[in-house]
Structures are given as C-alpha cells and as structure tokens.
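Please produce the structure of this protein holding heme C.
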Amino acid sequence: MPPFPVRLALPVLVCAVLSVPCLAGAAENPPPEQKAAAAAPAVSAAEAAEAKQIFAAQCGWCHGSYGMTADKGPKLAGTAMTEQEVEERIRHGKPGYMPAFHRFLNDQQIALMAKYIKSLKP
Ligand code: HEC
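Below is the modeled complex.
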C-alpha cells in the first residue's frame, strides 16, 4: 500500500497556499496592513491589493486590466503624467471623458491610486 496519494497531495497543497497571494487580486480580502517601515519607493503588496480593489470598483469599466490595457479609457501604465498630475486627474476627472472621483475617493485613496498607476511597468 504505497502512500503516493499523500506524496502527490502535499506539493499540490504547498503550491496552492504559496500562490494564493499572487492570484488574490481584487477578489480576495487585502492582506492585513503591513507597515512599510523601510523606505519603500515601490507599492507594497498590501497597497497594490487595495489599489486593485478600488480600480476594479471605480476605474475598471473604462481602463482595462488594472491599467495595463486600453479600453474606453487609455492604458495607464507608462503614463506621461507625473504622480501629481495623475492625482489631479483622478480628483477632477476630465469633462466629457472621465468622471471626477473626489466625492467617491478620499485624498489617501487618490494618492494611493496615483502611486499605484505610476508603479505600473508598461
Ligand atoms: C467613464 C470612463 C472612465 C472611468 C470610470 C475612469 N476613467 Fe480615467 N480616463 C478615461 C478617459 C476617456 C481618459 C482619456 C481622457 C483624455 O482624452 O485625456 C482617461 C484618462 C485617465 C488618465 C490620464 C492618462 C494619461 O496618460 O493621459 C488617468 C491617470 C486616469 N484616467 C485614471 C483613472 C482612474 C485612477 C480611474 C478610477 C478611479 C479612472 N481613470 C476612471 C475614462 C475613464
């Protein structure tokens, strides 16, 4: 009676557990807030998860693939705008093109979205 089902099941289980954070995306709860104590220029995993949740709810119906592809709105990865300009665009929108989000997102969320968009590699 060789115990091979166990030997097969274990690596599968380990892979599943390890890949969960990568696949979680917008659907899952964001991981508990990790304090980015070290000066992190990039977006932390927790911030990216939160940004993607906001993106899915607010931006995804016009901007494709979390900013990576064009849809009704342009691709956001590699934008020529500065982080500040991106914040202003999110806050005030562009009449006739994109709604203003200052009533739906607070300053901290707008700053997070700008930081997230600027972190996207085209
Ligand atoms: C109703 C559709 C719509 C929604 C929703 C929307 N956008 Fe846009 N967005 C656009 C369009 C259209 C443009 C291009 C406007 C133009 O021609 O300058 C744009 C442009 C932008 C730009 C400027 C890109 C560049 O390089 O010029 C940024 C940044 C941006 N959107 C971010 C966001 C974010 C973040 C959200 C969610 C909070 C969002 N947008 C939601 C339609 C939308």
